[in-house]
Design goal:
Oligomer: single chain
Number of helices: 3
Shape: globular
Helix content: under 10%
Largest sheet: 8 strands, mixed
Length: about 280
């Protein structure tokens, strides 16, 4: 069966949320509170200049999600039903400031703040129960019990590389890579939801490789020069080895932003610049 990866976004196993503040970080320590609508979380703040971002895990009912423990009511709220992201804006910041890493590592050890429980990255997960996720998750094995969903996971330099997600067994768990946070925060700063990129090309999960099966006429892919039979190898600096890699890379694309595509055509490596459009679906 042929699928359009840019439109193939099954729901995640559980929900998570991002909460956006614009005042400097004030309080210290992790914010341990629940998010109304179901689900407990350990929220934290990313402090960059005068901007502070609080992140956590929400319940499954996005429309009922609200932040418990905030002194002031949020002034704006955004909920994206595809990615399950929830964004709150408020004049107040909570929690301890952290900086974001540019990208989650492929392997190695991540730790919770304060030299807490460590988790070693085992793999990147593209599909669960045969269904492709909208973006890749990390699979970790922890030294002890998995941290509460929403807990920041820090790399060796102390930057947030991922956020703990659902637990798997007694010492395993999934984590949300930092690339997804960057994608979501950019949309939140623009005051809109995550706009899905439309490329106008078709891939098949059954092919095993990110081989283009079809290019629609008068589409971003067609105008960039991509063609049927091309095998994608890199998208926006991200290596693409299979269908799941392509789905992940498509999710991270910004509509309107020129992106370098590397591909193999008849054994010859080519580089093309593609400008994704906003998906209408």
């Amino acid at each position: 069966m042929v699928l359009f990866p840019e439109r193939c976004f099954p729901a995640l196993l559980t929900a998570f949320c991002l909460i956006l503040w614009f005042d400097p970080v004030r309080a210290q320590g992790l914010l341990k509170s629940g998010f109304g609508g179901g689900g407990e979380s350990v929220a934290f703040v990313i402090g960059e200049g005068r901007e502070a971002v609080t992140l956590g895990v929400a319940g499954r009912n996005l429309s009922a999600a609200k932040l418990d423990g905030a002194a002031a009511s949020p002034t704006a709220k955004f909920a994206d039903p595809v990615s399950r992201l929830v964004v709150f804006r408020s004049p107040q910041s909570l929690g301890q400031g952290f900086r974001l890493a540019s990208r989650a590592p492929m392997g190695g050890l991540l730790r919770t703040p304060g030299n807490g429980v460590g988790g070693r990255i085992q793999s990147r997960v593209e599909a669960v129960s045969g269904k492709y996720l909208p973006f890749t998750l990390l699979r970790l094995n922890y030294d002890g019990s998995p941290p509460t969903p929403g807990t920041p996971l820090l790399n060796a330099s102390g930057a947030v590389a991922a956020i703990a997600h659902g637990a798997v067994g007694e010492k395993g768990g999934y984590a949300l890579p930092v690339e997804v946070l960057h994608r979501a925060l950019e949309s939140a700063r623009q005051g809109k939801g995550i706009e899905k990129a439309w490329l106008g090309l078709t891939l098949s999960p059954a092919s095993g490789s990110p081989k283009i099966m079809r290019v629609l006429p008068d589409s971003p892919a067609s105008r960039a020069g991509l063609a049927k039979g091309d095998v994608l190898t890199e998208i926006g600096g991200m290596r693409v080895a299979d269908y799941g890699d392509a789905v992940n890379a498509f999710f991270l694309l910004r509509p309107g932003k020129p992106t370098l595509f590397k591909l193999s055509r008849g054994g010859v490596t080519k580089q093309l610049t593609l400008v994704p459009a906003v998906s209408k679906s």
